[in-house]
Every structure is written in C-alpha cells, then in structure tokens.
Amino acid sequence: MKLILRIVINALALGAASWLVPGIRAGSVASLLLIALVFGVLNALVRPLLKLLSCPFIILTLGLFTLVLNAGMLLLTARLGQAFGIDFFVADFWAAFLGALVVSVVSVVLSWILIDDGRADPS
Questions:
Q1: Residue 91, SS3?
Q2: Which residues are 24's β-sheet partners?
Q3: Which member of 10, 37, 114, 118 has the greatest number of CB atoms within 10 A?
Q4: Helices (H), 21-64
Q5: How many angstroms separate the CA atoms of 34 and 22, rounded?
C-alpha cells in the first residue's frame, strides 16, 4: 500500500512541477503515474550510485551538489520516459533544476501529511 501511495505522491509532485515550471510539460494523469513509476525506480537504483560517485563534490559543496544530482535525475527520468513513449518533457537543465526543487518540496510535504510511519504518539 505504501508503494502505491509513494507513486501517487511522486505523480502529484511531478504534476506540480509541470504546472509551476515553464520548461516542464506532462501529458495526462496516466503519463504522470507512469513517469512517477520510472522516477521511483531510477531513484531507487541509479541515485545511490550517483551519490556514492559524487560524494567528494557533495562534501565539498556542503550538500548543495545534491540539487544538481536531483536535476540530473529528473532529466534522466524525462529522457527515459520519452524513450518508452510517456508524454513527459523537460526542456533543459535549469527547468530540471527548478522542477527538482518543486518535486522535493511537494513530495516531502505530502509524505508528512499522507504517510504515517507509526511514530505518532497514540495518546
């Protein structure tokens, strides 16, 4: 159930990015759900390797290089989605950079609201 909720959260965050950032365009709701699935798989498989390889840059920039990695992951997601015929487009790096910021903020807020890890006090 949490996996489906995570995909929906990613789809909503990517939808918000396509609505707010001029260089990002998404087709239908189905396209958003499919690209959210691709985004989740890439974040699970590719992102840890990229963070490991870029660890010196992340340390040197006090974590700010993570924003560049997030933009790169969004660009990679868009290109891979287009290869699979999913209607999701990111124009350039700066659109991806702003889109990654929007996706990060929206997904964190929605995760706080929608996903309960059982850490709440029952009393």
A1: coil
A2: 90
A3: 10
A4: 29-45, 47-53, 55-60
A5: 21
Closest-CA residue to 66 (of 54, 79, 78): 54
Rounded Cα distance between 118 and 28, Å, is: 34
Tell me the three state secondary structure of residue 16.
helix
Tokens of 105: 């903020």
> pLDDT digit string (tens) for 106-117?
999 998 988 866
Q: Who's near 35: CB < 8 A, 6+ residues apart? A: 11, 14, 26, 77, 78, 81, 86, 88
Q: Which amino acid appears at position 23 of this protein?
A: G
pLDDT tens-place string over residues 36-60: 999 999 999 999 999 999 999 999 9
Residue at 100: amino acid letter: A
For the chain, what is the largest distance between any 2 Cα atoms, rounded to a whole number of angstroms? 50
Burial class (CB in 10 A: 0-12, 13-18, 19+), 118: exposed
